[in-house]
Input
Amino acid sequence: NLEQCRALAKQAVEQGAALLSLPECFEYMGVPGTGDALKAAQPLSGPLMAKYRDLAKAEGIWLSLGGFHEAAPQPEEKMYNTHVIIDKQGALVASYRKLHLFDVDYDGGFRESATTIKGQEALLVRDTPVGNIGVTTCYDLRFPELYTALRRAGANVLLVPSAFMPSTGEAHWHVLLRARAVETQCYVAAAAQAGRHNEKRASYGHALIVNPWGKVVCDLGAEGNGIGISEIDSELLADVRKRMPVMEHRRSEVISVQVGDAGERLRVVSAL
Output
C-alpha cells in the first residue's frame, strides 16, 4: 500500500494540493475475524509510520493518515484506530484515536471493539495550510455532537477518512457528510476505501468533498483509486456563516454540547 500512497501523493503535489487525506485502513486492510490487522499493528514510533513521514517530507505535502493500526502498549492485546497528521517536513503534528467503534450488524456484522480500544479525546489541529482541521474517523460521522464541538473550537475543515460498508454507505454516506457540512458550516473532506478488498470485506467508496453550503464539490465514485481536489474558499466560508449565524443562534441554555472534563477532552494542537 505504501507505493500506492506514494503515487497518490505525487498526483496531489502535481495538482497543487497542500494536504492529502488517505482513507481509514490506508496502510492495511485486514480480513474480518482473522486478527491479521492486529498482528500487523505498529506503534507510531515504528518503521511503517517512519516511511509515511519520509513520504510527506520527500513530496513536500501534508498527510492526513486516517485509520492507522496503532499497537497499544503491553499488556493490552488490542490496538487503536489512529488518525495521524503529518506536516510537509515529515513531523508528526498530532494523532487522534477513534472515539466511536463500529459494532454493528450490517453487511455480515462487524465488531471493531473486539480488537480496538476506544480513544479518549477529540482533536482540533490549528494553523495547517488548509485552516483549522477537526480530526475524526469513519463511524464518528454518525455522532453530530462531536462535529459541533469541533466547530465551536474553531474548525473550518472536518476530515472523515473512512471505510464505509456497502449497504450503510449507499443508505447514509452522502446525507451524513452533507449534514455535517451544513450544520457546522465547514468544509468536509472524506477520503474513502472503495471496492472489494477480500472475500469478507468491501467498501462503498465515493470519496467526497462537501462545501459549507452542503454542495458536493467532488465525488470519486464507487471503484478505483484517485484523488479529488478542492480549494478552501474562505470567502464562501465567511459568507455562509455571516448570513446564517447558527452558532450564535444555538440555545445552549436549553440544549448544550458538553466536552468532558470541563473541556479537557478536546485537545487543540497548533501546527505552527
